Amino acid sequence: MTLDYTSHPSELVTGGQINVNVGVQDLRKAIPAHCFKPSYGLSFWYLFRDFLVVGVLMTAAFLYIPKIPLPLLRYAAWAVYGYIQGEQMTGIWVIGHECGHSAFSPSSVLNDMMGFVLHSLLLTPYFSWRSTHRRHHIYANNLAKDHNYVPPQLSTYLSIKGFTAEQLDEMTEDSPIVTFARIVIQQLLGFPWYLLTNITSAQGSLARKKPSKWFLGNSHFLPNSSLFRPEEAHLILLSDIGIGSVLAGMWYASKIVGWHMLALLYVQPYLWVNHWIVAITYLHHTHPKIPKYEPEAWTFLKGATATVDRNLGFAGKHLMHNIADYHVIHHLFSRIPQYHAEEATRAILPLLGASYHVDKDRSFYGGIWESFTKCQYVVPNDERKDPEERTMWYRGGPSPPVEVQMGRGGVTKD
């Protein structure tokens, strides 16, 4: 059976309730009908604007930055270019993400065509990513089946660290320099490593019965990867062809402008794209005050609302299309286009009440530090309760070794 991309997740799994009076349909009815309708004109306008900004920045950098006589100023100009260009290229990735949710246009064919092109340009295997991302949206914050940032439970954490429960009470957080180094590794390598190994996912997220022991066997690149159903193989191969075509184009471009210039114009901003994808996804789903759920207690609404809206300022709103600012609504109704996300969020706030989580008053980078130090594993709110009655909450502690976090086939099992 192929993966269902059209039904709302609550039609595929237990929908649940916000409270006795509010369910998925109540939330849907509160949102203006036009918010669910993507517009060809608006979607292509945002895409055109993004490519225009990328083109102007790239042309200006290519023509003028090499002419800056002072090396220090020239290096600074390249660094500023890379940062701003990375933000705008992230906006293009976000539009590709919209395509994967059928939020770009009313046409599924056009959505997949545009998503394939846009994500391939940014070295993301579109159809492979779309498959696992769809399952992330169905099972968000389900400790047994989610695809993104699934924390270990206490017993697994103790096993990884080699502690006993008694020793854990004596442990302190990592030193600031160690924490900083681990954050840099995550932000630099996190997304490619996820694509290669399915890192941070639950074992139940796999489409096949168990993880593969073969090289790339749990990756987004092999047609027979443990992540995908056999009938998806041709789409995984097509995604690989898209990536290969872009890499070939990069090789050709390097013959014209040189590898050094290509690295400055494309690779440097791409590293910032990787940073933003990792940071945004991590902070949406990792916060000391949001819960996770065991499968017995989980429902779609519990998982979808265990998400945090964050603030990325001007760049988040205008360059990255509100991907961080209005993410709760995206998990509740992922087919709402980004340009209607704010209106839809405001419409359901009275119904969500305390189930709405937002953290927009603090620094985004401060949020990364907090989540990295305070969110290492989860424990139940009451161990005496049955699993279907429990909620799991984050606790802080020393980080697991990098080779453990990024190994074991990228799957988490407790």
Please give the structural blueprint.
Blueprint: H1 24-30, H2 40-64, H3 71-100, H4 108-121, H5 126-138, H6 154-161, H7 165-168, H8 176-197, E1 201-202, H9 233-257, H10 259-285, H11 300-305, E2 308-310, H12 313-319, H13 328-332, H14 341-352, E3 357-359, H15 364-374, E4 377-380, E5 392-395, H16 402-405, E6 411-412
Parallel strand pairs: 1-6, 2-3
Antiparallel strand pairs: 4-5
Describe the protein.
With about 425 residues, the protein is mostly helical. It has helices at about 25-30, 40-65, 70-100, 110-120, 125-140, 155-160, 165-170, 175-195, 235-255, 260-285, 300-305, 315-320, 330, 340-350, 365-375, 400-405; strands spanning about 200, 310, 355-360, 375-380, 390-395, 410. Strands 1-6 form a two-stranded parallel ribbon. It has a two-stranded parallel sheet with strand order 2-3. α1 (about 25-30) crosses α14, α2 (about 40-65) runs antiparallel to α3 (about 70-100) and α4 (about 110-120) crosses α9 (about 235-255). The protein is globular and about 70 Å long. It starts with about 25 loop residues before the first helix and ends with a strand. The relative contact order is 0.16. The model is unreliable at about 405-414 (pLDDT under 50).
